[in-house]
Write a structure and sequence with these properties.
- By secondary structure, this protein is of the alpha/beta class.
- The chain has a single domain, classed as P-loop containing nucleotide triphosphate hydrolases (Rossmann fold).
- Helices cover 36% and strands 24% of the residues.
- The protein is built from eight helices and ten strands.
- Strands 1, 2, 3, 5 and 6 form a five-stranded antiparallel sheet that branches. The protein has a five-stranded parallel sheet with strand order 7-8-9-4-10, sandwiched between helices.
- A hairpin with a 2-residue loop joins strand 5 and strand 6.
Amino acid sequence: MGILTLNDICFSYGKTPVLKDISYDFEKGKMYCICGKSGAGKTTLLSLLSGLASPQSGSIEYDGKNIKKIDKYNFRSKYIGVIFQSYNLLTKFTATENVVLSMDIARVKKVNKKQKAKELLLSVGLSDAEAERPILQLSGGQQQRVAIARALSYNPDIILADEPTGNLDKETEAEIMNIFRNLANAGKCVILVSHSPAVAAFCDQKYELTKI
């Protein structure tokens, strides 16, 4: 059994079914790509995996435990790190401040959170100078690196990323994918939601959703 398991998941919007009998298993140390055409349910599945929505039938288990029995705040701030396509960074703050704030929200106990934030940002390729820049003074690729560092700030088992390279050029896409590969090699479970064949080819396993 993996760290995250979907058992016969079904979800509908009103009378419109979106997901039906979805059973996936995700393990630590691997990269996964959830792909599919528009309307296939990728965004819905993302919401379910991150605990923002609940399936109408079936179950989602984290480390063998139904996530319905796990406090939603703890699940989203300790066990799973989410990286959004639009980054969702606080633009009035620096890269470092965004990561520190994430640690504060997750109640991470660190003596020097700013130093830890800079270490995380360095690990994803940002210099000390870039770490001190306001978000809007960073490129799209740099902002994506901040978003990854923020997701890592409380050391979750699972990294979930929504179209993580959708706004990036090919060279930056390759750099970001290598960061995800290194995270998987370090033991993280990395789940990417993407329509990109290049992203899917980079992953260890692909789960393809089809429109009902």
